[in-house]
Specification:
GMP Synthetase, Chain A, domain 3, 7 strands, alpha/beta, 3-stranded mixed beta sheet
Length: 163
């Protein structure tokens, strides 16, 4: 008996449950790490794009994708990495940025060209919304974050870097 192909909608729904290993409040689909899914008689091809070249979580994410697709019965899975177009925080939808803020991470502003100018913009504290904040460290727990301090509520917080 011939095996039925899994439809793309089901695959996207299941892939949409995989959380980002470094930002567990967001999924790989919400982060736009998973760029495309193609289903054919030969199998399933997933195209992904890391947030940073050399992202240490890439192999973990690929393993999660393979596990989800295997659970759906997909036997032949290929995962391709692309850097074109490069991943950017401008790909994040407003509701995704709000999830970051609610989680305690200051979301990145729109990067409309001049990164140096964007990095000089005030950063609102995700806890009290004050812009009386300052950069504590340009390097956070992961490559995509910085550490800020709020002078108003006296909380440290991470900011997702605008890239």
């Amino acid at each position: 008996m011939e095996k039925a192909m899994i439809d793309q909608t089901t695959i996207w729904q299941e892939l949409g449950k995989i959380t980002d290993p470094e930002i567990p409040v967001l999924t790989l689909v919400e982060m736009q790490v998973i760029r495309s899914v193609a289903v054919s008689e030969d199998g399933v091809k997933v195209v992904i794009s890391p947030t940073f070249v050399g992202c240490p979580a890439m192999e973990h994410m690929k393993g999660e994708i393979r596990s989800v697709l295997a659970a759906l019965g997909c036997e032949n899975v290929s995962i391709e990495t692309t850097f074109t177009p490069p991943w950017s925080t401008d790909m994040l939808e407003p509701e995704v940025k709000e999830k970051l803020r609610a989680f305690g991470i200051a979301p990145p502003p729109k990067n409309e060209g001049e990164l140096v100018a964007v990095l000089q913009l005030p950063v609102a504290c995700p806890f009290c919304n004050s812009t009386h904040t300052h950069l504590d460290s340009p390097f956070g727990a992961t490559l995509c974050k910085q550490i800020y301090y709020c002078d108003n509520c006296r909380q440290s917080f991470e900011r997702f870097k605008p890239i």
